[in-house]
Amino acid sequence: MPGKQPRTRIQKKNTETILEAALEVFSQHGFRGSTLDQIAKAAGLSKPNLLYYFPSKVAIHRALIDELMQNWLDPLRKIEADGEPVEELLAYVLRKLEMAREFPRESRLFANEIVQGAPNIMDKIEGELKSLVDEKARVIEGWIASGALAPVNPYHLIFSIWSTTQHYADFDAQVRAILQPEGDAHFEDAAAYLDTLFRRMLTP
Fold it and tell me: Whole-model pTM?
């Protein structure tokens, strides 16, 4: 049934189980370090059963990346050109930080793919992601031109937001080892810090 929507409740359940298992495996080992056998074992299915739903490791990875990219782009899409510039960008920062807290495995999956040269998603980066970043960069340039935002390079601003927020997912073990927080308490401190950092930089 590759490429088709599950036709039954069992098929849908198995597809979701495979993708959940693959997310865990890929986020830990990266694409190259993961195998179909690992994914099948994590899903509690036989390898032939797994291959009934997805013909290859690439197909599973692509399905995860397709879903991830849409979720990843949503916070950036929500930046409104007619909103208050500093507040719009700070809201984006907080949305990205919340994603790092809620979806750390997805963040690590994406990071692993990029570190390896983005072999499976370069078309999406050069296509949909670049188009959206270009669009929002033009919005930021307009805000700067109007005097509503301090002069910054819009692309490097977006990169900075990505790096300072996704760090808390991609380097979670390091952050927790140093801070030794109770649960996710450190995300509140991170939110306050990033608000101050970007607000001071962006306020004209």
Answer: 0.83
